[in-house]
Amino acid sequence: MNETNSSKRPTIYDLAKIAETSPTAVSSVINGSWKKRRISEKLAQRILKVAEEQGYAVNMQASALRKDRSNIVGMIMPKYDNRFFGAIAEQFEALARANNMFPVITCTQRDPDLEVEAARELLSYQVDCLISTGATDPDRITALCAANGVQSLNLDLPGHDAPSVISDNGNAAHALTNLILDRCKAELSWEGPLRFVGGRLSDNNTAARLDGFFRAHNERGIEVPDNHVMAAGYSANSAAGRLADLHPDGPMGIFVNSTISLEGVVRWHSGLGDAAAQVRYGCFDWDPFGSYLPGNVGMVEQDVPAMLEALFGLIGKKPKQADPIRIPCHLRPF
């Protein structure tokens, strides 16, 4: 094999000859499907050793045979459509590598069945830990991880069966509501009630933000009518649709639940003509472009670095299941 090592990349046939086995067995070990082929771990170890000695690039699933830990950490991501999730993905990768881990991220479009499919795929890579970010059913993923002996953690949305790191949605929403009400009073001589646009009532984060929203109103003795809560999803089209028939004939204030919904609110707001000057709104989520939007009085920035620092502090440990770790947010007035 000296000629092979010096002049060309070794093939699976070369490896099979040295390992005294079949090319099919070598291929199965290299691509990580050796268990499905019922190849013994002893043979898989021998093939892997030969492949490494010959400088053959091996599949991560195969290389995990060589050590107790794979050092692979997986993350299920719901969307890439705002700065919050984009920041999580980018900073998660950087932090994983800084901790000598290899990050693998997959986007599941808030589809619960796709989340489970993605979890199964990540488990097939023998991840040491699987992180569910904004998952619709995190406990279902935790059960799957537990069956495979893999640590499960939740980020952004909490679960009942695994440790969770989330934003302090309630207190941040309370602060944002007060900011919008204060600006409405100071600039429009109007004291509410505000409208709440975006999100889902069944969603933990929306429920927590509504709690802060109502709490701020109650402290001022302001009653919020039921029809002022317009939580019919996060999409821009949903937000614009709920506001389509609303033509303000006086001052109005809006609490926008995410930058995704904000797009729809801005679309509606831009078509109001002169009435747009009578509207003030704030958004739970952060985008620096928000400061240039007419009528926007401020935004809530979730502390992604602190959330990920808390999350990585849990990886590889066995914390007792407790209440979610809540990370304070930053209110950014404009």
From TrEMBL:
SMART domains for the chain: HTH_LACI (SM00354)
Keyword check for Transcription regulation: yes
SUPFAM superfamilies (UniProt xref): lambda repressor-like DNA-binding domains, Periplasmic binding protein-like I
Keywords in alphabetical order: DNA-binding, Repressor, Transcription, Transcription regulation
Molecular function as annotated in GO: DNA binding
Superkingdom field: Bacteria
PROSITE patterns: HTH_LACI_2 (PS50932)
Domain named HTH lacI-type: residues: 10-67
InterPro entries: HTH_LacI, Lambda_DNA-bd_dom_sf, Peripla_BP/Lac1_sug-bd_dom, Peripla_BP_I
Pfam assignment, any one: Peripla_BP_1
Gene3D superfamilies: 3.40.50.2300, lambda repressor-like DNA-binding domains (1.10.260.40)
Name this protein carries in UniProt: LacI family DNA-binding transcriptional regulator
Natural source organism: Marivivens donghaensis
